[in-house]
Amino acid sequence: MVKVDRDAAVSGISSFGLMRAAGHAVAASALRHYPEATRFVCLCGLGNNGGDALIAAAALAGSGARVAVYLMGDPARFTGDAARAFAAVSIPHQPLDTYVPTIGDVVIDGLFGAGLSRAVSSDVAALMRTVTDLTLPVIAIDLPSGVDGRSGQVLGESFQAAQTVTFMTRKPGHLLLPGRTLCGVLQVINIGIPARIVTSHRASLVENTAALWHKAVQVLDPAAHKYRRGHLIVFSGAAPSSGAARMSATAGLSAGAGLVTMVAPTEALPTLAAHLTAIMLRPVDTDEMLSDLVKDTRLNAFVLGPGFGAPDRARRYVAALSDRSLVLDADGITAFRDDPQFLFAAFRGPVRLVLTPHDGEFSRLFPDLAADTALSKIDRATIAAERSNAVIILKGSDTVISEPNGRVAINANAPPWLATAGSGDVLAGIVGAHLAQGMPPFEAATSAVWRHGVAGNKAGEGMTAENLLRAIRPLPRMPSSLARP
């Protein structure tokens, strides 16, 4: 956005005009949401966010509202448009450390914005805590002060905003946790920068929505048979731990794979047969039996890891599948903790591996990235994808999906109750089904994560993984007139 602002000015657009538009948008939000406010308290840093807050203060005063302005630092340090805003605002101002939060105040937070890179000072942190303790409404300009716009992490302390007003586009901190929960209701305001300038600086980073992957969703051919819809293989471990793999297999069938076969040791087959009907079973007890299995080119995709155990066997199986589309989850990931490079080397070339770690599993394959606190979740997923030549689904309430060429999606539709036993197994099966149907790995992963979130919302709070399976719904499909040939 710094580059966007710069290019907008170079193109002839008044940067102060943009600041005025931003400040007026903040004032409009304040009046719309809090007409009953006793006073609007504008907290102004010395950067452009402070300038926005000063413009908002003038607009609020002009509307007849009671307004107080508090500055964080010497006003002589204002520069550029912020200095111009300060000169244009005739409202008396006071030092920030003299502000005493009072019931009835609505706080306009213009202290730091999205560019904060270090922890807030102890006096500002104390003020934030007081405002929070009094449950005063906070309208944040761009981002709640204290939230890192790049990572969504809190740098020491932050405001808990009721409303956040940002401009032209969202920032990563609006979607990544805990920033997302600290923003309150997010408003994205167009302040007049042409779309061509904004899009020219857009990174390969988006929110995960249907617009990202809908072209990869195939319209069903009325004449299609089950093999045309893909054949998914899910590997099971021993009978006592086979429940996780059964979840994955059932999810794969529910998500649209034409056929699903569970591959398991012979001793586990009676247990599997007692629980499954539409899913086929096949015994594999030796590497030779596995070799015979993978000779069948109709088998489109594989899922290995849920409840699998047996790390030595997992490593051998993965090596045998290195030229196939594979979702590696749970025990399959952990099996490579002592030699992740072996896994990465096996899947060089076209991307065909999808890794689905939660933070703990991620640290087993990428301990250096997990330990580096300077990296955001986006950074970790991006570097891991490039290193492993795999699509990474770094799970959580703010799941990040990344592929080796740098494309990244942040998922924001998952309810917190998806954090339950078996939920990840269901996700692995959905990804496998999408791969089996021919979707590219990144689109298979992003659409599966989105679909998983939709199912979680449909199942509702208190759901179990079994409820989640029943809540899987079809993906949005393009109209047939728009379908690719």
UniProtKB/TrEMBL annotation:
The keyword ATP-binding applies. This is Bifunctional NAD(P)H-hydrate repair enzyme. GO terms for biological process: metabolite repair; nicotinamide nucleotide metabolic process. InterPro entries: Carbohydrate_kinase_pred_CS (IPR017953), CARKD (IPR000631), Nnr (IPR030677), Ribokinase-like (IPR029056), YjeF_N_dom (IPR004443), YjeF_N_dom_sf (IPR036652). It comes from Ferranicluibacter rubi. (6S)-NADPHX binds at residues 48-52, 113-119, 142, 244, 307, 358, 425. Binds 1 potassium ion per subunit. The gene is nnrE. Residues 1-199 form the YjeF N-terminal domain. The lineage of its organism: Bacteria, Pseudomonadati, Pseudomonadota, Alphaproteobacteria, Hyphomicrobiales. One of its GO terms (molecular function) is ATP binding. It comes from the Bacteria. Belongs to the NnrD/CARKD family. Homotetramer. Catalyzes the dehydration of the S-form of NAD(P)HX at the expense of ADP, which is converted to AMP. Together with NAD(P)HX epimerase, which catalyzes the epimerization of the S- and R-forms, the enzyme allows the repair of both epimers of NAD(P)HX, a damaged form of NAD(P)H that is a result of enzymatic or heat-dependent hydration. Catalyzes the epimerization of the S- and R-forms of NAD(P)HX, a damaged form of NAD(P)H that is a result of enzymatic or heat-dependent hydration. This is a prerequisite for the S-specific NAD(P)H-hydrate dehydratase to allow the repair of both epimers of NAD(P)HX. CDD domains: YXKO-related. AMP binds at K395, G396, S397, D398, T399, G424.
